[in-house]
Structure formats: C-alpha cells, structure tokens
Amino acid sequence: MKIVNLIEGLNIEYIHADNDGFEAKMNLTPFHDQTFGYLHGGATIAFGETVAGYASNQITADGQIALGQTITANHMKPKKIEGYILAKGKLMHKGKAFHVWSIDMLDENDIHISHLTVTNVLVSINKD
C-alpha cells in the first residue's frame, strides 16, 4: 500500500469530537518508528495536531477554518511500535481567534505516554 499523505500514514482509526473534547485512536505501524523500534515523538505530535485541528473545525463558525499554530509536547514514557495510542483532548479555551486543547496520549495499557498542548488559530476563508 502506498501512503500518499501524512494523515493517511498516521493510521488514525477513529475520531470522536464534541463541544468539550475529543478521543481518537492511532494504531502503530512501522511508519511511526524512529528507527530503534520506538514511537517517534514527531508522529505523536502530528497525531495531536491532526485531531485537535479536526475537533476545532467541528466547532468553528461558518466561514472559518482552524489551523495549527503552536504545539508543546512532553514525552514521558517511550512506547514500542506495537498496539496503539489513544488521544484524549479537552478544550481549554474557545475564543473567537483561537482554540487551546490539552491532550493526554495513553497507550493500550492506559500508560501516559505524552502530554500536548495545541493552539489552533481561526482563519476566515473566502467562499467565492
């Protein structure tokens, strides 16, 4: 199978989002490997930005889109390339100009792998 973009390569199984938060699952494959058989921190960050962007876009005003602006990440535990990562996000700030999400990344054994904070800027789009 040829991977054509980052979102496809991340192997996100599902995203459930509502006004207060979201949950998403990323199944781990060799795509997520940082060479030594462990999850690449950049893959975790890309997963967090992707699902936070999706969640923000579910609650933006008509004529706006949410784009990732700032991400901070703390990786607490290494994770072998097996199983999955569950992202549990909570909306910390819903403003007119930006959203801030707090995201806990847990593995299939409920071990806290990483914590991310994602800020999405809200941008007006033309509907021409």
Describe it for me?
- The chain is α+β, with helices and mostly antiparallel strands and 128 residues long.
- It has a single domain (6-124), classed as Thiol Ester Dehydrase, Chain A (Roll).
- Helices cover 19% and strands 46% of the residues.
- The chain contains 2 helices and 6 strands; from the N terminus they run αββαββββ.
- The protein has a 6-stranded antiparallel β-sheet with strand order 1-2-4-5-6-3.
- A hairpin with a 4-residue loop joins β5 (98-107) and β6.
- It is globular, with a radius of gyration of 15 Å.
- It starts with 5 loop residues before the first helix and ends with a strand.
- The relative contact order is 0.22.
- The model has no long low-confidence stretch (mean pLDDT 94).
Domain count: the total is 1
Strand order of the largest sheet: 1-2-4-5-6-3
Which structural category do the helix and sheet elements fall into?
A: alpha+beta
Please give the CATH class.
Alpha Beta
Question: How many beta-strand runs?
Answer: 6
Strand content: over 45%
Radius of gyration: 15 Å
> In whole angstroms, how far apart are the ends?
36 Å
Number of helices: 2
Q: Quick one: overall form?
A: globular
Query: What is the element string, with H for helices and E for strands?
Result: HEEHEEEE
Biggest β-sheet description: 6 strands, antiparallel
Please name the fourth-level CATH homologous superfamily: Hotdog Thioesterase
Mean pLDDT across all residues, rounded? 94
